[in-house]
Amino acid sequence: MFYLSRSEQVAVVVLLALLVAGAGVLAYTRGQRSAWAEPGPLFVEAPAGDDASRPLLVHVSGAVRLPGVYEVPAGARVADALGRAGGTTPEADVAALDLAAELEDGERLHVPTQQQAGRKRPDPAPERAGLISLNSATKEQLDSLPGIGPVYAERIIAYREQLRREEGRGFRSTDELLNVPGIGPRRLAALRDYVVP
Known about the structure:
Elements: H1 6-37, H2 48-53, E1 56-62, E2 68-72, H3 78-84, E3 108-111, E4 132-133, H4 139-143, H5 150-167, H6 185-191, E5 195-196
Parallel strand pairs: 1-3, 4-5
Antiparallel strand pairs: 1-2
C-alpha cells in the first residue's frame, strides 16, 4: 500500500484545490470571451411582412348604400371602403371626408349626411318642373331625352355609378355629361333644357 505523510496529504489537497480553481477560472474566461465575441441579439423583431399584407376590417356606417363591416386590402383608402359599401347616398356629405386617407384595421368610417354636417342640400330639381335628375333618373327616363337612346342612357348610368364608386358622389353639373363617351357639346346643348344634376 502506498502511504502519504501528513504534509504530503496537505500538499496533494492544495494541489487538487488549485487545479479545480484553475479549471473554473479558465472555463469562466472562455465563457466571457465567447459572450463578447458573439453577442446575441438585444431584441428580436417580428417579421413585418405578415402584418403589412394582412387585410383590414373596416366598419362603414352612415349615409352609404350598404352599411356594414368590410374587408379591404392593407393600404386601402377611405374611397375604397366607400366603394365596398356601394357608394354614398345622395344625402351624404362627402366633403366632410378625406377620401384619400389611409384606413387602419378596426376603424369605423362614418359618413354624415349634409343635414348632420349643417349643410343645406341643394335642391336637385330647381323651380323648372318636368326636369330629369341625372343622379336619380332611370334608364327609361334617360332614353326619353332628345338625342339619347338606350346606348347613351346606359353610358350615363355607368358614368354615374363610376362617380359614386370612385368619388362617392353623383353628377354635380350637367357639364359632366361631356365625360360620357359619345356625348359632345352639341348633344349636351340639346339636353340642357331637360336635365339637372
